Amino acid sequence: MRFFHAIALSARYLFGHFRKYLFLFIALSFGFAFITVITSLSAGMRDAVFQAAQLHYGGDLFVLGFDRSPEIMIHVKDGKAVDEAIAISQLNPQAVLYRTNCFETAALYFNGKAVRQKNVFGVDWDAEASLFDAVDMSRGEDEEVNLDGGDTIIISAPVAKLLGAKIGDTVLLQVDTLTGQKNSADLRIAGIISDASLFGYYRSFMDRRALNALLGMDSDEYSSAGLLFSDLKGIDEKAARLHNSISSLLQSAPYMADRDDFSYQLSRSWDGVRYFVLSLPVYVSQVTELLFALQGGSYILFAMMLLIVFTSSVLTYRLILHERRMEFATMQAMGLGEGSLFAVLFFEGAILTLLSTLCGFLFSHVILFILSRFSYDAIPGFEIFLRNGRLSAEFSPATIAANVGIVLSAVVLALLGPALKSLRADLAQVLAGGE
After folding, report:
1. Where does the pLDDT of residue 368 fall: very low under 50, low under 70, confident under 90, or very high at 90 and above?
2. Would the N or C end of the chain have less CB density within 10 A of its end CB?
3. What parts of the sequence cross the membrane (predicted)?
């Protein structure tokens, strides 16, 4: 039987007797919708974490300098050597972002209220403005935010609420200098980021050179150099290459595979500035462990739904193919081989699966839209998995294709047993009306 003739025969029977397959069509559609929701939400939550972490830390791969004299501070003194090491590594990042971080020693004051900041990041706005485009941020009437000039600051919405401050208000930023003295500056609020997550709650951004001046650092010094790539593919190999380059030029910590290694190396003693190379997954390894746990749960749900799809397919095909035994026997008596008949059944299952998965894919968008309307504020710490306060899905063509393939495989496996039983039944007995 020719290929296209088999497909045409399969389609003709399927659409002519669609009512018989309606239960299976509904089961497959709902099953695929559920599977799509699980996989797309899992990917969306992962991307939300890494997108938030990329903005927070300023890149995908980092070189940090830690100075233990007199107290440990994040401080890169030899920027030229770091730039040379990055060039030697030949990683060709999209950009290198230089940041100064005033870590846990800063506070904001406004109208008699004070809020301590966990991180005050000094950024080069021209290089980093694009990172803030995807951020849910109040920008004032002119919708323009610019940290150049050193007299503006971006703060988080929770901190703005605690201070009672709004766009355009002037707050006082107080920091500890490198020598342990207090220094302060009046800064106008240029933007307020709606971020109550682990990363963004007590965090603010200002011009790097202005923050350097407050801390007593030279204008060209910084705390970290962040290498920005198009994605995280091969990030561990890139981290190893950069570490080798840094180690050849500067005093550096050993290569670190996780956050525990990083914490251990920070607890050790050294003289001067020691350089650390960290990738974004290592920086957020504790969060990614939680992500892996969530993904593990999603795989269990995936397997349960796949079992339901398989069971529904087996039951449906047992009933339908038992009814069609006379039809198959007649076609075999006319000279149609067992392989040709199985090809017809296979294409019936394939067409049904494709139609079901298409409907399921569309239905999954409805489910995801409804889920995105809910508030998840009641779940502590869940904000880190949200994008702009909402659940977001990531539809990967490769994942969708894999899901379709898995569902099709389940349908074919469910079809196999009943099909072989029907096609291999005694021809004379079936034509005579026997079971």
Report:
1. very high
2. C
3. 21-42, 300-320, 341-371, 395-416
